[in-house]
Amino acid sequence: MPVRIDRGRPRADADSQRAVRARGLVQRFGDRTVLDGLDLDIAPGEFVALLGRSGSGKTTLLRALARLDRISEGELTAPAAVATVFQEARLLPWKRAWQNIALGLRIADARRHALAALDEVGLGDRADAWPSTLSGGQAQRVSLARALVRDPKLLLLDEPFGALDALTRMSMHRLVQRLWRTHRPAVLLVTHDVDEAALLADRVLVLSQGRIEHEERIELPSPRSVEQPEFRALRRRLLTSLGVDEAGEAVAAPASRVQAALR
Amino acid sequence: MSTRLLSPLAVLLLWELGSRVGLIPAHIMPAPSALATTLSDLLVSGRLYEHLGVSLRRAALGLAIGVSLGTALALVAGLSRRGELAADPLMQILRALPFLGVIPLFILWFGIGEVTKVALIALATKTPIYLTLYGGIRGVDAKLVEAADTLGLNRLELIRHVILPGALPSFFVGLRYALGISLLALVAVEQINANSGIGYLINEARDFMKTDVIMVCLLIYSVLGLLTDAFVRMLERHALAWRPLMPSLRAA
Asked: Do residues B35 and B212 make contact, with C-beta atoms less than 8 angstroms apart?
């Protein structure tokens, strides 16, 4: 059941048409306003990627949805069943892989569920491994299993592949896609990687100045490839909206140009 | 390991030689072979067991009280702000107090019997436990706490599964310090009018100018230190099996 997050205090909400609904969301830290009247809807089962330059408030939005920070103003509803995967796997080093997954599970036979989740991410044979013996990619897969075993209605991914090498990242992309198709949670993927966002998501949002400044619905067939011409056009549009041309050079972001004109 | 024994063995050999040719007077420093005889005499007569037992009981009792006290206070101060405000300033003041300095006060309060001895060992050992465990609790990776929070752990589960295991390595460091300090405190308290214990053996030997007994007793103290340290390291290996052997070599 979706739960309203009102200044950090979750409240029940009857709206089942949306997994996430944000209206006029404001998040301030001291006198710094990071989210400034943000509106956002995510449908149940929708895969949304959130792009933005560093400091644009991507992680701030994710943390509000994960109920890690109380919001300053506005309305925010999110499902009660939210699971988060962080950039670092954040596994407890003193718990074996399966124990990390079973931690906090309030169901009978948590161990069996944990083992099944490990199987699903292809690590069934590492159930008893200490996290320190896992590779970065393996640890992140355990972290994914830990999130999915909770059967979340909303899965928050905070740059979960940022610290992985390119090959591992590609296999993680396939894994996430497969898991998403099986479990169908709504997904919010925070990333700074335009290709990653365009490869995985139904919809890509660009966050700038504390608001969603750009939105692209992606209707490309799956599996997508960075070689497709449509993909390259999409990529170019996203980069421009991020204020970067394809050579990687910064140009004035359209949003800030509009705002400058209005002043 | 065997090569590490070379230099101590060489010193023993030179010492024995020096004693045999008369360079080292026996009343200053008896030969190693003489010390071995003294040790075996003390063992055979059963005096060593008796006094060692008394000393160990004192150390163990004081240590048990000190470790419990230090642990309890560290939990109070580490797990809550109010607890920190209540306990930490007092502990910092107590910590600044050299524990050997309170011996006269303890004698006035508790007399010259066992209570003073055990109390002093307890006072001395609670400090390292408190400091390391408190620091360990506060040093637990906030990111892990946050991740555990998103898993829906309640406060008790968080303490049990995240904070205490995270602080355990620090606790073991404190325990090793505490064991060392307990022996130091033991030596100090056994100088006070003891009529049993290793310290008593030493005092008695001094009165009879028996250098060999004094040296054998000092040897016992240092063997005790080595054994207890090895014991804690064994516990540590078992309890902290999850720690990587060479953390710095693992890619992040």
From this structure: yes
